[in-house]
Amino acid sequence: MNIEGKVAIVGAPSTGKSTIFNRFIQERRSIVSEEYGITRDRLYAKCEWLNHEFMLIDTGGLEIKNVPFSKEIRAQVELAVDEADVIVFLVNGQTGVTPNDRAVAKYLHQAVDKKIILACNKIDNIEMKSNIYDFFSLGFGEPLAVSGVHGIGIGDLLDKIVSVLPAKKIEVNEGEKTFCFIGRPNVGKSSLTNAILGESRVIVSNIPGTTRDSIDTPFVRGGNKYVCVDTAGLKKRGKIYEAIDKYAAMRAFDAVMRAEVVVLVIDGSQGVIEQDRHVVSIATENDKPVIIVVNKWDLHSHEQDAQKKFEEELRTYFKFLDYSPVIFTSALKKPNLNLLFKYIDKCYEDFNTRVQTSILNQVLLDAQIMNEAPDFNGGRVKINYASQVKACPPTFVLFVNNPKFMHFSYERYLDNVIRKTFHLENTPLKILCRKKSKGGAKL
After folding, report:
1. CA atoms within a 13 Å half-sphere pointing along the CA-CB vector of 33
2. Which pLDDT tens digit goes with each residue over 201-214?
């Protein structure tokens, strides 16, 4: 990996943070609405610009008034600011300086050792350019004029960001398979770490939240080199108020970014809860393969077909993790630990797979002959050429006659064909459709 730091977009409500976020990553991931204060939680995505790659963080709007969720939103913004290397302070060029802008500015002036870029959004035409001068009073120098809706000034803003990014990178150790445990507090992540290492490497306690840091442990098993990362239990969004909890959450996120395989640990004695879905979203939003480990299975009531019923519940709750294997174990009695490493190896292999272009195109040609695409949006999609553009996760670009003709069910069909043909059962896949250029290659 080659992540050159983190960039947080911060500002008052309705300044266009989510629009800028989506513009940067060139996809609609963050919800954009006319509704005031729609964003509440932090949202992460990788952003690439001029051979630089950084992590982008969207945040909720900060405001003075005590409105619903204001305390929770502020906690999330503080966490984003703490972990970011560069902060884009976004203001609304159509409203002028507001009391909320001044409150945000006061807060950001206290952010020590942070690079802060002031960007004035919603400058939709040249006549509005003079609106930016009011914002000099916030004390962050000359604002950059941008329009998230029309894309004006976005390149200049990205140029400024990459020019001040720190010269640091998140690296993965060569030749070592790095995996991390994630989960809510007290599900047994540290106990599992000790069980696979055969020693008391990390502190174990019945008190939730014992682990406060992410702990890396390199080891060798069966001739393979691994790095196991135990992380702090992740609390609900909006419940992270103490500084120590904030930094624990930040380190857990960094652990997921460094890992090639993420192991979600669930407490089998309690069952699945909503917070488990929140915890695993850190991995899925960053396209990491996930193994679901049901720990403390020895404490579960073992009625007939208990594991089958529990896995069916998991599959229903985590429909977006249909590629993830499920393992039932107990850190105390240690069943199925060999199976865990079997799946870690398989997820790692799938995640790093590269497919030969000629074979990929033949497979997709056969798939179209076997199952013709349906009519959708006024036409039928025709794949002319395909290529894998990267691994980690395997990402395929399909050059088609019109991307709008691709029905989600046909994309799902192609996803299944690729998985089955190349044995990519245990990793997320990405399929991107692009309009073919004139005279482009054909299958």
Report:
1. 9
2. 433 334 444 343 45
Nearest CA to 117 out of 30, 211, 45, 11 is that of: 11
Tokens (6 digits) for 54: 């950084």
**Cα–Cα distance between 91 and 14 in angstroms, integer?**
9
Global pTM reads 0.66
Please give the average per-residue pLDDT across 304-324, as a whole number: 91
Token pair recorded at residue 281: 């979203």
Q: Is the peptide bond before 208 cis (omega within 30 degrees of 0)?
A: no
Helix (H), strand (E) at residue 189: helix 189-197
Mean pLDDT of the chain: 84
41 burial type by CB count under 10 A (0-12 exposed, 13-18 middle, 19+ buried): middle
Long-range contacts at 39-44 (CB < 8 A, ≥ 24 apart): 40/69, 40/72, 40/73, 40/76, 40/237, 40/238, 41/76, 41/237, 41/238, 42/76, 42/77, 42/79, 42/80, 42/237, 43/285, 44/253, 44/282, 44/285, 44/286
Strand (E) positions, 183-309? 215-221, 224-230, 261-267, 290-295
396 in Cβ contact with 432 (< 8 Å)? yes
Domains and CATH numbers, the chain: 6-164 (3.40.50.300), 177-351 (3.40.50.300), 357-435 (3.30.300.20)
**How far apart (Å, rounded) are the C-alpha atoms in residues 399 and 347?**
28
Query: C-alpha 171: how far from its chain's center?
Result: 17
Distance CA 90, CA 318 (A): 35
Could you tell me how many helices (H) and strands (E) the chain has, helices first? Answer: 11, 17
Judge whether 178 and 258 are in contact, CB under 8 Å: yes
Residue 308 has pLDDT above 70, yes or no: yes
In order of 284, 293, 344, the CA distances from 187 in angstroms are 20, 10, 20
91 phi, psi to nearest 5 deg: -125, 165
